[in-house]
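Q: Okay, next protein. This is Sugar kinase from Streptomyces griseoruber. I've checked the sequence twice, so it should be correct. Can you predict the 3D structure?
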Amino acid sequence: MLVVGDVVTDVVARHRGPLASGTDTAAVIRTLPGGAGANVACWAAHRGCADVRLLGRVGADSAAWHERELTACGVRPRLVVDPQAPTGTVICLVDAEAAAERTFLTCSGASLRLEPGDWSDALLDGVGRLHLSGYLLFSASGRALVRTALASAQARGVPTSLDPASAGFLAELGAGRFLALVEGVDVLLPSRDESCLLTGSPDGAEAAAELSRRVPLVVAKQGAGGALIARGGAVVAAVPAVPATPRDTTGAGDAFTGAFLASLLRGDGPAAAAAEGCRAGARAVERVGARPPTPGDGTTPAVMNGARPTG
């Protein structure tokens, strides 16, 4: 599987209760590897996909660290080092008293500077699926890359999938524009909020069904409500969530997507693959950070040698 998408540095701040405006709020802060595309790749490898490749763009400030972290997760990274922009950084504010819900402050940096010049048709050699992070659609160069990659995959008969990634950025892009850009994608993996935003329907099931008139297979993540599978304008299956005690919901949707795609590549049907996704999502929310555990790391993701990358 080839994943094309964002690689960023996450600064995760876990606090309790509302932020105290104008003064200090106590928090536990960690710097960890992240990025929706990178997270999906890591979870796909963790859930059994033997060959996961990732195309992303980073700054020179932390390129070596990100490459090491991806390799430790079993991913084969191809990271383009941007000569001008630093690695993207996301500040993740996680309220430990609100079901570990998170709010993001995002500086995309090099991650949204992926461009068609970074693409090569040879990247698809031996690839059984191409997955695109929706964050690519939020920059002109990223949109051009998506068009190039989709055309290449379609010419080779490689199935494609895309995760919209961000309801906030999606609202700025516009539903009509988004749906035009993803035309030809085989599988769409939106969250409930993204599904409703794209269709204008307040009902998650209705939204998933409507989207499946535009995309052959829609797998709509519903958080604690599990996942809905829709085809041909109708919801055909509802997969329950796996109970979990959340510590940090950052990356839960990425974990679902990675496990779902790994299961599809093994030959499982969409319902069985969604069940795998729900299990991975439950595992993800019980950890701090967006990545799966790596061999030898105990219970938490690795930190960059005790230092923090800039950018």
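A: Here is a summary of the prediction. The mean pLDDT is 91. The radius of gyration is 18 Å.
Q: Noted. On to the next one.
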